[in-house]
Specification:
heterodimer, A: 280 residues, alpha+beta, Thrombin, subunit H, 2 domains, six-stranded antiparallel beta barrel, 12 strands, 34% helix, B: 167 residues, mainly alpha, 6 helices, globular
Chain lengths: 280, 167
């Protein structure tokens, strides 16, 4: 009888715990997740930094990585300069097209926070990674995350010392993009990782009348309120018609090496810069 | 001490699972270290303890991903129930048993969580990708099953903890 009662109790506790977990309010659920991430972050950081230092030491031994630390600082500088350059190009073009516009807002250099990648998605269902910077460093959800080569993704869940980044290679990540050569607009979404390890994205809803060709540059359009205009995403690899035949679709190879990211730079956009991104 | 050893094993497993890169050729499944660790506890502990470990491991796994809490816990608890029901069916070789159980555990947890996430629109993954990922997970589970079982067993013996296969 006691055994039956014990067995019943186990099932009851199991069912109750599962029900509570599955129905936790979003704020509580986020708090629990943030708490566990915060608890594990120092260990993640320690292990990943150790692995990073070992890799750097190996590079140094090979005679290639003696300047690894300097390289890191330069990469940050390159990123800032590239963002400035692209913003300037966009502004010049807009000035030419919209001469009548008076009081055009001057774009300032974006402030970036350098972060190290300390973990990747542990479930296998998302293309995401975790950074060692969080709310205390000024990060919030929906901030653009860059590498020196191009856009990587956006922050989604932020705790005090960590931030999870949804990569542009994830099928649920959508970015409004522009192909500057043809001035075409479309929506980019991730296609995951192919069996050969290549990360690809695709741009849907492209105008079939535009002569898009392989090699065309793909940048953010600035629509959508998350990404500022002009951030490099990648280059067109191939172009095809979509299933409906109404639009064209481009397969895009991201410039950022999303599969081997060790560092990332989060762009801290002010509310002004955020609202600026929403204009066409 | 037993609880502390379980906590250490869960933390190490969660740490490794989030650090190891997912192999692209297998459909990018995560290395199923937590599921194979739960398998170890399902085989060596009483049911209440095994279920508690499964729930904790599930919460850790969900907390380190972008999904809601509870899906992995549900999948791992289901795994414990199934393993405890069928663990009497073993192969002659202990390693082969752990290999098969590891493969089945990893694949079933991957598939179950994937189905739950997809049904609730948390992920946008085609069915083909889901099947490839599940198969890849089975391969990794077959590799990790005996290894994790051996490592966890050695760790507990190192700590001087007495354990025996639960009835």
């Amino acid at each position: 009888m006691a055994v039956h009662r014990g067995g019943f109790l186990v099932w009851w506790v199991l069912a109750a715990t599962l029900l509570v977990l599955l129905n936790l309010p979003l704020t509580w659920s986020r708090s629990v997740k943030a708490g566990i991430r915060e608890a594990l972050a120092p260990l993640h950081s320690l292990v990943s930094r150790t692995a990073f230092r070992v890799a750097e030491a190996a590079d140094a031994l090979r005679g290639l990585g003696g300047l690894a630390v300097e390289n890191r600082a330069l990469q940050e500088e390159i990123l800032r300069l590239r963002a400035e350059l692209r913003a300037s190009q966009w502004a010049v073009r807009e000035n030419e097209e919209l001469r009548a516009l008076v009081g055009f807002r001057t774009r300032t250099a974006y402030r970036v926070v350098a972060a190290e990648v300390i973990a990747r998605d542990s479930t296998g269902w998302w293309q995401s990674l975790r950074l060692d910077r969080g709310r205390l460093d000024g990060l919030t959800p929906d901030l653009p995350v860059m590498t020196p080569d191009g856009l990587a993704g956006r922050t989604v869940e932020v705790s005090d010392h960590t931030a999870d980044v949804l990569l542009i290679s994830d099928p649920s990540c959508r970015v409004s993009v522009r192909l500057p050569r043809t001035d075409s607009f479309g929506v980019l979404r991730g296609s995951g990782v192919r069996w050969d390890g290549r990360v690809l994205c695709r741009v849907d809803f492209l105008n079939p009348g535009h002569p898009i060709r392989p090699g065309d540059e793909v940048v953010t359009s600035g629509l959508g309120g998350v990404f500022p205009p002009g951030l490099l995403i990648g280059h067109v690899e191939s172009v095809q018609s979509d299933a409906t035949g109404i639009h064209r679709r481009a397969i895009v190879l991201p410039s950022a090496n999303l599969g081997a990211m060790r560092q990332a730079f989060v762009m801290l956009l002010t509310s002004d810069e955020r609202s600026n991104t929403a204009r066409p | 001490m037993k609880v502390v050893s379980i906590a250490i094993l869960l933390v190490v497993a969660g740490l490794l699972q989030a650090l190891l890169p997912a192999p692209a050729r297998l459909g990018q499944p995560a290395w199923p270290i937590l599921p194979t660790l739960v398998l170890y506890f399902a085989c060596t502990r009483e049911r209440p303890m095994a279920l508690a470990v499964a729930m904790t491991a599930g919460v850790v796994q969900d907390a380190l991903g972008l999904g809601p809490l509870g899906y992995s816990a549900a999948a791992l608890a289901t795994l414990v129930i199934a393993i405890r029901r069928y663990r009497g069916e073993v192969f002659e070789s202990e390693a082969l048993t752990h290999m098969v159980l590891g493969a089945v555990s990893a694949a079933s947890v991957t598939l179950l969580t994937g189905l739950l996430l997809r049904a609730n629109s948390h992920i946008e993954v085609p069915w083909g990708t889901m099947l490839v990922k599940t198969a890849g997970s089975a391969v990794l589970g077959a590799v990790l099953g005996p290894s994790v079982y051996w490592a966890a067993n050695r760790f507990e013996q190192f700590l001087g903890l007495h354990w025996e296969v639960a009835p």
